[in-house]
UniProtKB/TrEMBL annotation:
The lineage of its organism: Eukaryota, Fungi, Dikarya, Basidiomycota, Agaricomycotina. This is Intradiol ring-cleavage dioxygenases domain-containing protein. Keywords: Dioxygenase, Iron, Metal-binding, Oxidoreductase. GO terms for molecular function: catechol 1,2-dioxygenase activity; ferric iron binding. Residues 118-283 form the Intradiol ring-cleavage dioxygenases domain. It comes from Tulasnella calospora MUT 4182.
């Protein structure tokens, strides 16, 4: 008899086999999956199977349509490389990334809201001093000075918070999108001062299209959607005892604010830029001359215990709302 590495399962609790039909298959799959020893995995799979089967039934999905979906997902996987994650892009453009992020980072008081990380974060950002530049010597575009404070929800300053920031160049590309990339550019790492302040120089980023040469790009075209993200400045802030803040600032007036391809825009993250025309002030900020754009923005971090409590309250409310609907 052939041997198998498959572990033994107690099958005695499973119902008798019934004829497979559209009316019985969902319950049968969930019954088999109920043997899963991980309660959370079992719950997620039960809901996933139930809802997926409902979609198939409600749409009377054809064999050809399901095969089209399988081949599409196959292409998504085949497009992934060490520097390109097409599945993350797919998650982004159908709003799942934004939904997961919002669920896991509920707003606490005046805390700064999270948004999606995006695919262009790297670990090799160069450390810059307070007020230093994240742009290289080949800097082009509109100069921008960014400053503010890092605070907690009670308004107390947070010194020595690690700040990572990254943005596009003036052409709408991240440094990782260039084949001849020599090192980090238009990105940097700094720390908040003892008074919680931070400051750095960069440029005003521009709107850009998400990769459109793969299956996700084809999907967007078939849906009649564009591939663009509004201009934004990425910020990731870490401090001991606080939940890491992953966010971005968007600029008022950008034509893609209402139709961000990855649904990352939140009203509280839309900011205004100030025009500065003083050469004296420009030199004080590290620029050769005016004009430049000034962006003042404080960031409010949430303590770990505050974040944990907020997630628990949201989960409890979700369960209550579902019970009301089912009742």
């Amino acid at each position: 008899m052939a041997t198998s590495n498959t572990p033994e399962f107690d099958l005695s609790k499973l119902p008798d086999v019934s004829d497979i039909s559209p009316e019985t298959i969902t319950n049968r799959v969930n019954a088999i999956n109920s043997l899963c020893p991980n309660p959370r995995q079992k719950f997620i799979m039960e809901r996933l199977i139930t809802h997926l089967h409902q979609v198939v039934s409600e749409t009377n999905l054809t064999t050809e349509e399901w095969m089209t979906a399988i081949l599409f997902l196959t292409r998504v996987g085949q497009t992934c490389t060490d520097t390109r994650q097409e599945f993350i892009l797919l998650s982004d453009v159908i709003g799942v990334s934004a939904l997961v992020d919002s669920i896991n980072h509920p707003k606490v008081g005046d805390s700064t809201e999270n948004t999606v990380l995006g695919p262009f974060f790297t670990e090799d950002s160069a450390d810059i001093p307070h007020g230093g530049s994240i742009a290289s010597a080949k800097e082009s575009g509109t100069p921008m000075f960014v400053c503010g404070r890092i605070l907690d929800t009670s308004g107390q300053v947070i010194p020595n918070a690690k700040i990572e920031t990254w943005e596009t160049d003036a052409e709408g590309f991240y440094d990782t999108q260039y084949a001849d990339r020599q090192g980090p550019d238009y990105r940097g790492r700094l720390k908040s001062q003892q008074d919680g302040s931070y400051a750095f120089r960069g440029i005003v980023p521009v709107a850009y299209p998400t990769p459109g040469d793969g299956p996700v790009g084809d999907l967007l075209k078939s849906l009649g959607r564009h591939q663009f993200r509004p201009a934004h400045l990425h910020m990731m802030i870490e401090a001991p005892g606080f939940e890491t803040l992953i966010t971005a600032l968007f600029f008022r007036g950008d034509k893609y604010l209402k139709s961000d391809a990855v649904f990352g825009v939140k009203t509280s993250l839309i900011v205004d830029l100030q025009d500065v025309t003083s050469n004296e002030e420009a030199r004080a900020k590290g620029f050769e001359s005016a004009p430049f754009k000034l962006l003042k923005q404080d960031f409010v971090l949430v303590k770990n215990e505050e974040a944990k409590k907020a997630r628990a309250e949201r989960a409890a409310k979700t369960v209550l709302d579902e019970a009301k609907v089912e009742g």
